[in-house]
Design goal:
Strand order of the largest sheet: 1-11-8-7-5-6
Radius of gyration: 19 Å
Order of helices and strands: EHEHEHEHHHEHEHEEEEHEH
Mean pLDDT: 95
CATH architecture of the largest domain: 3-Layer(aba) Sandwich
CATH topology of the largest domain: Rossmann fold
Low-confidence stretches: none
Largest sheet: 6 strands, parallel
Number of helices: 10
CATH superfamily of the largest domain: NAD(P)-binding Rossmann-like Domain
Distance between the termini: 60 Å
Strand content: 5-15%
Helix content: 25-40%
CATH class of the largest domain: Alpha Beta
Number of domains: 2
Shape: globular
Amino acid sequence: MTTPRVHTSELRGTALANEIRARAASAATELTAAGTPPQLAVVVATDDGSSAWYVRSIARAAAKTGIQCTLVELGPKATAEQIRTSLTALSADPEVHGIILQTPLPDGVAFDDLAAAIDPAKDVDGANPLSLGRLTANLPAFAPATAAAVLALLDRHEIELAGRHAVVVGRSTVVGKPTAQLLLQRDATVSICHRHTKDLAEITRRADVLISAAGRIGLITAAHVAPEAVIIDVGTNPTDDGGLVGDVDTASVQGRVAGVTPVPGGVGPVTTALLLQHTVQAARRR
């Protein structure tokens, strides 16, 4: 039987990101006037081009919001001890309110070991294992900004979660696992798929809400989605021509699903805006 075509909404994040940044800018103005100018520090130990683009976008957004953004450039040959020393010093600096450890890291340097050196009170991207543990226990903590952006977009577009089946493709501690935890907190029934999942399409077709964070171009096609499902595409995959595409074959799912986020213009701008929002929240708590 042929599946009837439906109108597919583009679940854009730009307007939401603008609103979040505006609120962060207002808070930053108040904090600065009160003698606590919010400051975000980004530790970079890579010469990766896409990473550099992302860091620049954070710095530009911070400047427009009234948040000082300090880039700590350690270079691609930095040792684990050098990176840990920087994170420890920033954690102890009362003038720094938010800390991000940018990836990728140099070969042989483990992200999880170093993320533990970030003060949880300044861990605005939810990288410290303590932050992830508190998130799992439903205790106050900053969620990874990308995971938080997924939920913010679903709320923005009034997608009901309680009692719905959500499928998360990808199990990283940056996106997949924390997104699943946030969905559970909203009373969704959650399945997590990964590279060892047998018959991915059979599981994703059951999803009312499908979140793909696998980092594989064209992974999700019409064969993977249920009619009128909602898809959040977290993938950010560079193309040979310098562009950016997600995990979802958008042309394939158009007319079948109820909504899908674009790449770029979906999760990305909301993620950056939430990092700024988390920074002013951290500054308020100091």
